[in-house]
Amino acid sequence: MNDLAIHTEGLVKSFGKTCAVAGLNLKVPRGAVYGFLGRNGAGKTTTVKTLLGLLRPSAGFAEVLGYDIRGDLLAILECTGFVPENKTLFGSLTPAQIVHFNQGYFPKWSNELVARYADLFEIPMQTPFSKLSLGNKTKVCHLLALCQGADLLILDEPSIGLDPVITDLLLRVLVEDHVSEGKTVFLSSHQLAEVERIADWVGIIDKGKILLETRLEDVRQNYRLIRAAGDAAPAISSADLIAVQSSENFRSYLVTREAEDFAAMLRAKGMTILEILPVRLEEVFLGLARKEVPCISGKPGMIPAHA
Amino acid sequence: MYQWKAWHDSRARITLYILAALGSGILFGLNVISDANMHTYWAVLYAATRRPFLNYDFCMDLPFWMLDWVVRDCGQIAALLAGLSLGACSVGGEYGAGTMHFVLTRPDARRNLVLTDWKVGLPAMVIIVGGLAFPLLPFLALVHAKGPGNILAGLPALWVLGAAVYGLSYFTTLAAGSAAKGLTLSVAVLLTFSFFPTALNEWWHSDTLLRATEWTLRALKNNAWPLTSFEWGATAFWLAVAAGFLGASLAWIRQREV
């Protein structure tokens, strides 16, 4: 058994001429909460669907919990709880009936957890699924994933329709009941604050490729935003530089480590360092994923340094 | 578990179809009794006027011919409609509701989804077609017509035809990804099967396909009274078509992306 819950190498998924996932390399450690971030159409859901056998990979290699997605799909599905982006279950059945339907598939299913989470999330178990609100539908999807005894939870947009109280409860349940027992949570979301709150690792994907995969602690401790002013923008080349943003009066450099050394390099090139700031996940995400278009002032926005 | 869900979803529809078939069968039966009385009256009248070509036995055969018509012709319609709708609604229901991804992420072999749908759909079709024919049997006895076994002899052909149509409808729905598209494709295939061989014969004077088609339909024409020859070959052909669609569906679901 390897130490990775999800491992992909050069994973490709194409639809005709459109390449939704273009050589994705992903390493999700076991026991971690991994935030999988990306803009709309970046390839997040396609990646998730490919990992779960709903789509067939065009090329590359992928393992989930040590099982190859091409050959051991049933083993993967037995050990993986999945909350899809589209929170749709059988409309004519009540949540209690859906639980009855679902439990037969999973040997580690826990009815005690069903009772606990149904009560905690205030799920109306006897109302037909089609008549539930979006929030309650999302809760039922989570209930099914949480009670099947999965070693890996893959949650695609997990908080859609949930109010802040239930979202808070859900995040606590994920960490306290699942991650604390060594289980892995793979969180595909646009809600950066939620990811930042519970994730250990983040992967940022754009156009089907990983732009950044790192520990969130590393972002907090080492990533810095350096604001510098100067008459001319010097040509900078550094492995630590991941994005540059220009405005009328200054330039912002997002660096992954050794910010002081990078600032010294800027000073040596005639720039004046205005400030060096710690960054939040949102700034890293925007720095990497923001589209290269002129902002309102007519100046370019944040440009990924590798672009 | 999926079998429980499939039955839960379709039981109301299947019950309705069965009731409709039983109701139609009973109505036809009542009509046959009425006709039988009339034919008895005319038979006696013609016998009294010494018209030997319309004897009593001949007239009492007429109700049976009518029953035969009900089973063979109306039964074909029932088999077609039941096969088309049940085939499209089963897997098409999952596509339409957006639950296919949920079903396919349960740890169960995908073939079981297809096999379960067939296990629920085919018996339903068999019961629906039978529901049209079986109510006629008591009426048949009432009018003292030929033995009821002859009526039942037409049923296997209807069942295999229904199974083939069910298979066609199921496969096209599975492949097209929606019940509406699947039904449209199925109807297009059935229309092509019905008219293309004739068109080929009329326009290009090639009757090979037409004769082949007519051979397959002998199962429906000759398998009722008088039971001179049961069309085993043509019946087996429709059974093979149904099995072919089952095999194609099993192969397709393995590769299906949602």
Assess the beta-strand content of chain B as a share of residues.
Answer: under 5%
Question: How widely separated are the two ends of chain B?
Answer: 21 Å
Summing up helix and strand content along with how strands pair, one would put the structural category of chain B as mainly alpha
Q: Supply the number of helical segments of chain B.
A: 10
Q: Based on Cα principal axes, name the global outline of chain A.
A: elongated
Order of helices and strands of chain B: HHHHHHHHHH
Uncertain runs of chain A are 292-301
Determine Rg of chain B (CA atoms, Å): 22 Å
**Low-confidence regions of chain B:** none
Percent helix among the residues of chain A? 25-40%
Order of helices and strands of chain A: EEEHEEHEHHHEHEHEEHEEEHEHE
Largest sheet of chain B: none
Pair of chains with the largest interface and how many residues each contributes? A-B, 26 and 20 residues
Residues in β-strands, percent of chain A: 25-35%
Counting helices, strands and paired strands, the structural category of chain A is alpha/beta
Shape of chain B: globular
Describe the protein in words.
The complex is a heterodimer of chains A (307) and B (258). Chain A is α/β, with parallel strands linked by helices. Chain A is built from ten helices and 15 strands. Helix content of chain A is 31%, strand content 30%. By secondary structure, chain B is an all-alpha fold. The longest helix of chain B is centred in the N-terminal third of the chain and has 47 residues, at 2-48. The two termini of chain B are 21 Å apart.
